[in-house]
Amino acid sequence: MPHAIRIHRTGGPEVLQWEAVELPPPAAGEVRLRHHAVGLNFIDTYHRSGLYPLPLPSGLGMEGAGVVEAVGEGVADLKAGDRVAYTSGPLDAYSEARNIEARHLVALPDDISFEQGAAMMLQGITAQYLLHATYPVKAGETILVHAAAGGVGSILVQWAKLLGATVIGTVGNDDKAQRARALGCDHVIVYSREKFPERVRELTGGMGVAVVYDSVGRDTFLDSVACLRRRGTMVSYGNATGPVAPFDCALLHKAGSVYVTRPGLPDYIASRAELLERAASLFEVVRSGQVKIEVLQRYALTDAAQAHRDLEARKTTGSTVLLP
Q1: Single pTM value for the model
Q2: What is the per-residue pLDDT for 289?
Q3: Which of 43, 179, 207, 256 has its CA 20 to 30 A from that of 3?
Q4: Sheet bearing 209-214, strands edge to edge
Q5: Residue 241 has what pLDDT?
Q6: Burial category of 140 from C-beta neighbours within 10 Å (exposed 0-12, middle 13-18, buried 19 and up)
Q7: Distance (Å, rounded) from C-alpha 130 to C-alpha 321?
Q8: DSSP assignment string, 41-74
Q9: Residue 11 backbone class (left: φ over 0; alpha: ψ -120 to 50; beta: rest)
């Protein structure tokens, strides 16, 4: 009988429980997937804590990679032995094996490892839609990326440079600053000792940036808006420090008629065609070597609680995977 991480109540990492789970044969349209690696993402902590409420009890985890073990009736484009990855469907990636609808899966190229596949689907497709759809970055523009050494941030930096942007990144310490520079940041701001709005204005000759990609949330939102050029775009795509507080829309006029958006992954892979298109775009830049997916932390799946503690304490850098 396979095991999985489950929660029966919300709270801190201590609510994560390792349990045996029943796994019936895959239903029509489903496959049984044996995980080889599972991605760790900040949104997992939102689900665990109750910030994003779930029906309980519940599994956790939004992305994984592994091998198809069996297929249900009506599944024509997958077979046992296929290598696949995913970042959608019901939460249950923190498991040794699971059943999942085939429509959520994409074929994982042979030259991309299971660890890379598990680490890149949510973070990489998020970076893809942020840069190409939420605000399409153009060559010559200057952008600001918060948490530039983190999972999504590290991909955003590399891909934005590939698009020809000048990238300003913020980080929390000097070690992460060194990594951000290695990823391609033109300028790095250590926010623990510098006021990043003032530094951004200095670096841009007072103009501000075209777009801010902000996964931090409450603690950086207003200062991020202050970094924008006239009619710039504030992209708030995460809540690492908590949800953004309500604000007066007149603020957007005062800041230069700027735009604010709060995108979410499900709305950018709402159709099977869009999922395949974004995944193909991601696989292309990774396989070319122009965007690197570096797994810098690995935990046993049974140690998911410690992985959550380290993630929330900002002890991780880049991508992290859980290994069943």
Answers
A1: 0.91
A2: 94
A3: 43
A4: 187-190, 166-171, 142-145, 209-214, 228-236, 259-261
A5: 81
A6: exposed
A7: 22
A8: -HHHHHHHHTSS---SSEE--S-EEEEEEEE-TT
A9: left
Cross-strand pairs, 98: 33
The alpha carbon of 162 is separated from its chain's Cα centroid by a whole number of angstroms, namely 19
Q: What is the CATH number of domain 3-121+272-323?
A: 3.90.180.10
**CATH number for the domain whose boundaries are 139-262:** 3.40.50.720
Q: Which residue has the tokens 């760790």?
A: 40
Q: Can you name the residues that pair with 5 across neighbouring β-strands?
A: 18
Distance CA 89, CA 96 (A): 16
What's the rounded Cα separation, in Å, for the pair 308 and 140? Answer: 38
β partners of residue 170: 189
pLDDT beneath 70, residues of the chain = none
Q: What pLDDT digit, counting tens, does each position of 272-320 carry?
A: 999 999 999 999 999 999 999 989 999 999 999 999 999 999 888 878 9
Q: Residue 242's pLDDT is what?
A: 82
How far is CA 70 from its chain centroid?
A: 29
16-25 LR contacts (CB < 8 Å, sep 24+): 16/48, 16/60, 16/94, 16/304, 16/305, 16/308, 18/302, 21/95, 23/97, 23/98, 23/99, 24/99, 25/70, 25/72
Q: In angstroms, rounded to a whole number, what is the distance separating the alpha carbons of residues 313 and 307?
A: 10
- Where in the chain are the domains? 3-121+272-323, 139-262
- Per the structure block, which two tokens stand in for 111? 């030259």
For residue 71, give Cα distances in angstroms to 28, 74, 75, 324: 8, 8, 6, 21
The residue among 151, 126, 136 whose CA lies nearest residue 268 is 126
Buried b (16+ CB within 10 A) or exposed e, 69-93: bebbeebeeeeeebbbbbbbbebbb
Is the bond leading into 24 cis (omega within 30 degrees of zero)?
Answer: no
